[in-house]
Amino acid sequence: xxxxxxxxxxxxxxxxTATVIGGVGVVASSIPFISAMKPSxxxxxxxxxxxxxxxxxxxxxxxxxxxxxxxxWILRRTxxxxxxxxxxxxxxxxxxxxxxxxxxxxxxEYRSIKPEYLVVVGICTHLGCSPKYLxxxxxxLGPEWKGGFFCPCHGSRFDLAGRVFxxxxxxxxxxxxxxxxxxxxxxxxxxxxxxxx
Length: 197
Fold this sequence. Notes:
Number of helices: 3
Shape: elongated
Mean pLDDT: 87
Oligomer: single chain
CATH architecture of the largest domain: 3-layer Sandwich
CATH topology of the largest domain: Rieske Iron-sulfur Protein
Structural class: alpha+beta
Number of strands: 9
Strand order of the largest sheet: 1-9-8
Number of domains: 2
């Protein structure tokens, strides 16, 4: 090469090398940004169905689990509690579950797949407080009270099928999430595929 002459091969080599190194740098620096856009495993797990073991749940006991950041109540009702449900109908705002707060297979007098087990979201339908489970309430909650859920925030009451009483702030029954029985002792909350109405 003479003075003042340009080595075209060397220039092409340096240009190609700089382009490749620059491209690798752009790809390497974009990986964290792309990874940040994908939901984390924890985020994916929040919406995933949960499996609940109910083998040790005794009649009259309430089990609380968490699904999608909400409390899920699983109540095993006694025979007496099931027998008392029809007597509550005249005190309830929506005794037949006409408002769509449950899947079709839970639109019955028990609001459940199996009468013995109630599965509901433990959030009051008024302003989102979490009611308390009061199997016995005495006269303080009225003579018609035969146990259920009481929201201390504004006084809403629900029976042991999660149905709302008349004259309280809550507008509708407690929500029944999608669920199914995997066996006699296991429930899957968040997936009801294959359940017939």
